[in-house]
Design goal:
The protein is α/β, with parallel strands linked by helices. The chain is built from 8 helices and 7 strands; from the N terminus they run βαβαβαβαβααβααβ. The protein has a single domain, classed as 3-Layer(aba) Sandwich (Rossmann fold), CATH 3.40.50.720.
Length: about 250
C-alpha cells in the first residue's frame, strides 16, 4: 500500500547514529524502514516504540555486505510503503590496526559494508526514485575519509570512496530532481568509541574547536536538513559535522 506520508529508508538503523536518524525522521512524521544485522531485539523494540496508529516504523534484517539482502531490504520497504522519498546510507563498520596485520576478509568486509553497500543500495533505490522523479539521498562518510587516519587506512579509503561516489552519482541523477549529499561526522559518541579510554576521548574532544565530541543527534539533525526541501539546491556536497575537528 502506498504511504500517504513521506518514507525514509535507513541502513544500519538500530544503534548509534542510525538510531538517532530513525528517531529524528519518525518524530517528524515519516514512515520509516530501517535495517539491522545483529541487534534484532533492539531493532524490534525501537520499531515498536516509534510506531503509531497512523505511522509505521519497521525493522528489516539485512547484511549490508550482501547484494541479495540489500535488494530484499529495498523491495520490502517498497512493498510496505509503496515509495521511498529519502535514503540514508548509514551502515558502517571499522577495523582498527596496522594494514599489514589485517586479513583479506577484514579488508573486504570493511569495503563491502562501508562503500559497496552504499553503491548497491543507492542503485536499487534510484529505480524507485526515478519513477517518482524525486528523491533525497544522504550518505554517511567520515572525517577520516577526508584526512585519513593511521591504523584505519582501509576504513579511511572506504569513506573517501563514499565522498567520490556521492559527487559522481549526484551528477547522474540531478535531472530527475534527486539530491545526493554526504555527511562526514567527526568523533561521535557511539559503540565505535567505546574502545577508547576517557583520557583518549578527552584528548579527541580537545582537538575540536567546540571542545567536545559529538552526539548521534548532531548527525541526525544534519541528515534531516539535507533531506529537506530547504536543501533542494544542495547536491554533490560533503557536509563536515565535526565540531571544528579538522580546522
Amino acid at each position: 500500500m502506498k504511504s500517504m506520508r513521506k518514507v525514509v529508508l535507513v541502513t544500519g538503523g538500530s544503534r548509534g547514529i542510525g538510531e538517532a536518524i530513525v528517531r529524528k525522521f519518525a518524530s517528524e512524521g515519516f514512515d520509516v524502514c530501517f535495517s539491522y544485522l545483529k541487534s534484532k531485539d533492539q531493532a524490534e523494540e525501537l520499531a515498536k516504540e516509534l510506531s503509531r496508529e497512523s505511522q509505521r516504523v519497521i525493522a528489516v534484517k539485512a547484511d549490508a555486505a550482501k547484494a541479495d539482502e540489500i535488494k530484499n531490504l529495498v523491495q520490502t520497504c517498497v512493498c510496505e510503503f509503496g515509495r521511498i522519498d529519502v535514503l540514508v546510507n548509514n551502515a558502517g563498520i571499522s577495523e582498527f590496526g596496522m594494514l599489514v596485520d589485517m586479513t583479506d576478509e577484514q579488508i573486504l568486509n570493511v569495503l563491502n559494508v562501508n562503500l559497496n553497500s552504499c553503491i548497491l543500495t543507492t542503485r536499487e533505490v534510484l529505480k524507485i526514485m526515478f519513477s517518482q522523479n524525486y528523491g533525497k539521498i544522504v550518505n554517511i562518510s567520515s572525517i577520516w575519509g577526508i584526512s585519513g587516519a593511521s591504523c584505519e587506512s582501509v576504513y579511511s579509503a572506504s569513506k573517501a570512496g563514499v565522498v567520490g561516489f556521492t559527487q559522481g552519482i549526484a551528477k547522474e541523477v540531478g535531472g530527475a530532481s534527486i539530491n545526493v549529499n554526504a555527511i562526514a561526522p567527526g568523533v561521535i559518541m557511539t559503540d565505535m568509541t567505546k574502545g577508547y579510554t576517557k583520557a583518549e576521548l578527552d584528548e579527541l574532544a580537545g582537538c575540536a574547536a567546540l571542545g567536545r565530541n559529538g552526539a548521534p543527534e548532531d548527525i541526525a539533525n544534519a541528515v534531516r536538513f539535507l533531506a529537506s526541501d530547504e536543501a533542494k539546491f544542495i547536491t554533490g556536497q560533503c557536509l563536515v559535522v565535526d565540531g571544528g575537528f579538522l580546522q
